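target protein:
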Amino acid sequence: MKTKNFVSVTSSDRSIRVSPSLRADLKRAVAFTLESVGFAYPAEVSVTFVTPEKIRELNSEYRGKDAPTDVLSFPELDDPAHIADADRDFSRGGCVLLGDVILCPDVIAAQAGDFSHTYEQECVYMTIHSVLHLLGYDHTSPADNGVHEKTQDEIYSRFAGEKKD
């Protein structure tokens, strides 16, 4: 049984346009990622496109890195593995509030070719990466990085393959 998720895809600046097809792909990618890792609860995730200046500001404030980056994740839960034990304060409209994904289209567009991705494919890939962060995956140690990278690569490969069918 599929759960009903609420995924918002917005832009923080009028200069950033998000096509309807990319918006739909990102919503599907969030749901596909949650389903792929067996997340059994309806979830709420926001995906926001920001300028390089804004992501640099956020990266500096929250990570101490004074540079633009491709994506940032802001999880709402300390331990997503214990959702069943979470206070109702963390749920909204029947959904578990997982957090926010912040994408910088300029950085993503610049790096997409390095990974043989189109801009849209790299947006999907980075969204999958970030949703895994919201679920507690990390890459602070080599072992953690291996699990995170392997999981995101497997999910992206299946998602891309399903989209072609």
